Amino acid sequence: MNKESFYQFSTLTVLALLVAFYGGTYLLTLLIKKKKENTDAFMVSNHQIGFGLGAASMTATWIWAASFYGAATSGYTYGISGPLHYGLWGALMILFIYPFGRRFRELAPNAHTLGELIHARHGSSSQLILASSNILGSIISLMVNFTASGALVSVLSPLSFQAGVVIAGVGVLSYTLWSGFRASVLTDFAQLMAMMAVAILIIPAVLFALGGPGTLSDGMSLLTPEQANLFSMDAILNQGAPFFVAVLAYAIGNQTISQRLFAVREDHIKPTFITATIGYGAIVIGLGMIGLMALMTGMEPIDGDMNNLIPQMVSMYLSPVFIGLFFILVIGSLSSTADSDLSAMSAIVMADVYGKNIAKNKPDPTKMLFIGRLTMIVATLIGVILASFSMDILIMLVFVGALWGAIVFPVIASCFWNRVTNAAFTSAVIAGLLMFCIARFELLPMVSVIPVLFELLAAVGGGVVLGLMAFGFGGRRVGMIVATIAAIALAFFCVGFLRDYTVLLASLMAYGVSTIVCVVVSLLSSSEFDFTQIDQKVINYDPVKPGVQA
């Protein structure tokens, strides 16, 4: 089977599907379109998003095009445990945001971005580090999602890759531009309902098209012992652990998540995040099973490209109706994340760049909205251009992941510990990022004491990750105990072993080094911050009466 063997719709059919999806989404946003938009509503819906919309939006945003292909690749590569490692840890990260999110909202109930809170806590330099990392991460996310659209359209229709990229860019921008975050949340709800309905239909349809559960039982013989093992160490070290570490950084560092945190009504934060945890896990683990099915039937991905697994399975075993549903499923998933990226970047430029650093907390609301919409247009244009080149994004993804990993402890510590200074925050992030790059790209020879030092720093990072999670739900004492025990235990197991797993080693080092530097520099200062100042410095730009639904 080659590329031409994929089932292809006619150009007219694909265009009709895309127009129906994006046209319907645009018409949906007309229900909330206002002649005179409100800046706080544009950025965070006046902090009044309810439970249902909040949970759906969080789930839809967390599920992006890469989730489908990544989960399937994990199932195909690592066997039975692959989809669980991809979906379970991503789901749990949504849950682990919740306790820290409550603290963020407590300190800055009127915030639109996490950067505003950090600006009130430390000033411009720390805020701009956070803002810059978010803008870069969102641009890359846009590029990935537009690239997925181009690839899907080129595979399932006569249209070119570039045509698919442009259609997705214009389609997402068309319904997000006027109402911003409010449009993103409303359409997320509709897109998630569609994604759930289609996933529920497609996954069992593929299973029974293959011959049912009996066929998969026969396919167990094709699995290696590691792939057949639910507790495969190969899967844990190469997939589970690196993903576990990465998504925690994504959860704390990414504006698309914190924007929803600040938008949801404060009394609905807990049920919103718990529901999103369950929803994300169920959908992504289910989609990962398609990759496992491909492995158990002996399928080889076309051109060796793992991203062809799901389209290949759907194209080979399902009818055109189901292929059309799959097409909408992927377009819906990438659109729900792309519109979140546009809303996130507009909020960052509006609040962090213009509101805090240019207008000095006295912005012109009309100019602020213009800047937000202009940001969306420019970001879409950049995303489309980069996606059209089909660029290799691995280096940028690695860099952004490291930057987010290096900011996790400084951000959380800044919100709980009054000794953390701007110098501690900035130096910790720079040191963590620098050491990550040295380890990840092997800039120093891994000989003599260097690998031992790196492994010990990574052990500290592992203790920090587990300690932060324990701290979030159990408090400071529990967090300190867990972090200490975990770091000591990991040091014993990591030395002489972790150097062979470069990605995991470097990721954990980013946590460990940034934590050590942040703590040491903070302790060298005698200043103590008054947390009540944060609420006074973070304001609503268009105050509304409490309880008014945006």
TrEMBL record:
Where found? Cell membrane
Q: Which InterPro entries match?
A: Na/Glc_symporter_sf, Na/solute_symporter, Sodium:Solute_Symporter
Q: What is its main location?
A: membrane
Listed A to Z, the keywords are: Cell membrane, Ion transport, Membrane, Sodium, Sodium transport, Symport, Transmembrane, Transmembrane helix, Transport
Q: Read off the Pfam families from this record.
A: SSF (PF00474)
What domain of life? Bacteria
Q: Which reaction does it catalyse?
A: L-proline(in) + Na(+)(in) = L-proline(out) + Na(+)(out)
Do the record's keywords include Ion transport? yes
CDD domains cross-referenced by the UniProt entry: SLC5sbd_DUR3
Tell me what topology the record assigns in the membrane. Multi-pass membrane protein
Q: Which residues cross the membrane?
A: 6-28, 49-72, 84-101, 128-153, 159-178, 190-210, 230-252, 273-296, 316-335, 368-387, 393-417, 424-443, 449-471, 478-498, 504-524
Does the record bear Ribosomal protein in its keywords?
no
Q: Which family does it belong to?
A: Belongs to the sodium:solute symporter (SSF) (TC 2.A.21) family.
The protein's name: Sodium:proline symporter
